[in-house]
Amino acid sequence: MALTKRDARLIAAIQDGIPLVSEPYRAIAESIDESEDWVLARIGELIASKAITRWGLVAVTYEVGFTANGLVVWDVPDERVAEIAKAIAATGLVTRCYQRHRTSARWRYNVFSMIHGQERDEVRERAEEIRRQVGIEALPYEILFTGRRFLQRGARYVEIR
Amino acid sequence: MPVGESGFATPTPLVLGKVASLAGPQGSSDDAVMHQEGPVDRLARKLFHEYQANFPLVSRPFAQIAETLGTSEDAVMAMLEALQETGTLSRIGPVFRPNRLGRSTLAILSVPEDRLAEVALRVRQHPGVNHVHEREHTYNLWIVVTAPSAQRLGEFLAQIETVSGCELVVLPMKKAFKVERRDGLWH
Questions:
Q1: Contact criterion met (CB below 8 Å) for B185 and A95
Q2: According to DSSP H, which parts of chain A are helical?
Q3: Which of A23, B123, B137, B180 sits in a 20 to 30 Å window from B170, CA-based?
Q4: ipTM strictly over 0.90?
C-alpha cells in the first residue's frame, strides 16, 4: 500500500508502541498533529490491509521462560527444501521453520528451525528425533544455542530523524 | 534467529511468577513453575491470551479491557507497566508484515569472542537494527535489520559492517514454513 507523509508520521509514532496512558490514541494524535478519530481509523485500515498483521501485546521474545533455545540449521538441497521443510514443521518439535536465501560460500545452511527447551540435551534429543522422523540423517546440520540478548525492539519502518 | 521478523510470545508460568512476586511474597523464579497461580498471574495471562491481537481501537482501550475482564482501568495499566518493567512485555502496538512497508533481513556477524559485547553495543546503536542476539557459533552475533526501502537496507547493512569491523553475511528470508504462537494461533 502506498504510504503518504501522514502515514509515515503515524507509523513513526506507533512503531515503538502506544503509551500507557488512559487515552493513548489521543496522545499519539496530539504528537503528530492529527485527530484521534483519524489515528484510530488509519490504524484500523493498516490492519485491514494486512500491512499490520496484528495489533496488541508483543512479548519480549518467544524464548522467555525457556532456558535452552537451539536454532537448528540444515543444509538442504534446493530442490528438496519444500518437502523437507514441511516435514520438519510437521513434526511438531519446532516452533519456527524458514528457508533463507544462500548468499555466501561461508554459510552453507538454508533451512532454519527453532527448538525451545529447558536443557540443552533435551534440545539435542529433539533435533535427533527430527532427523530420524524426517529421514534426513545424511544432511549436514548444526545446533546453535542462544546466548545473550543484546537488543529486541519493534521494527522501525520509518526513520526517526 | 528469525524471531525479529514477526516476534510474539506468551509468557510461561516461570515469567508470570516473576511478575506475581512484585505483588507479594512468592517463591523464587526457579521454583515459580510450581507455584499456585494467583489473581495477578491470572490477569497477566488473560491479557496475553486475549490481547496479542485485536487490542481495542477505542478512546480508552484499557478501560474497555478492564470492563471485559471485570477489573479496573488502573489495575490493567499497572499490570501492563509491571510486565514491561520485568521485561516480559516489549510493547503494545503493531507487528508489521515483513517486507510490506519496508525491507528487513537477518544478518550474521563473525566477531572475535573478546570483542563480542563491544561490537554488540556498537551495532545496536544503529537505528535500523531491531534485534541483536548472541549465538554460539563462529557466526556469533545475529541481528535483524529493518529499513524503509531495499536501497536503504543495503546502505544500513554496509554501515553496520563498517561500524562492527567484522565480516557480515546477509540471510534474507525466502519462505516461512511455520511460525507458531504459544497459544496455538498461527501467525
A1: no
A2: 5-14, 24-31, 36-48, 81-90, 120-134
A3: B180
A4: no
**Which among B96, B129, B187 has the least Cβ separation from residue A151?**
B129
Q: What DSSP state is assigned to residue B12?
A: -
DSSP class of residue B97 equals P
Nearest residue of chain B to residue A41 (CA atoms): B57
Contact A99 B175 (CB under 8 A): yes
- Cell numbers representing residue B95 in the block: 507487528
The two beta strands, B173-179 and B129-135, are unpaired
Helix (H, G, I), strand (E, B) or coil at A113: strand
> Distance between CA atoms of B4 and A154, rounded to whole angstroms?
8
Cβ distance B64 to B58 under 8 Å? yes
Cell 526501502 found at: B149
- Give helix then strand counts, H and E, for chain A: 5, 5
Residues 17-36 of B with CB under 8 A from A: none
Interface test with B, best of A3, A18, A23, A57 (most B CBs within 10 A): A57
Report the Cα A131 to chain-centroid distance in Å: 24
Sign of CA dihedral B71, B72, B75, B77: positive
Quickly tell me which residue has 525451545 as its cell: A116
Q: Which residue has the higher pLDDT, A70 or B18?
A: A70
pLDDT score, position B181: 55
Residue B67 has pLDDT above 60, yes or no: yes
- A66 CB neighbours in chain B (<8 A) are 12
| CA closest to A19 among chain B residues | B92
The model's confidence at residue B27, banded by pLDDT at 50, 70 and 90, is very low
**How far, CA to CA in Å, does B163 sit from each of B109, B125, B137, B156?**
12, 10, 21, 10
Q: Is A113 exposed, middle or buried (0-12, 13-18, 19+ CB in 10 A)?
A: buried
* CA-to-CA dists, residue B23 to A70, B17, B44, B171, angstroms: 33, 10, 12, 43
Cell numbers given for B169: 553475511
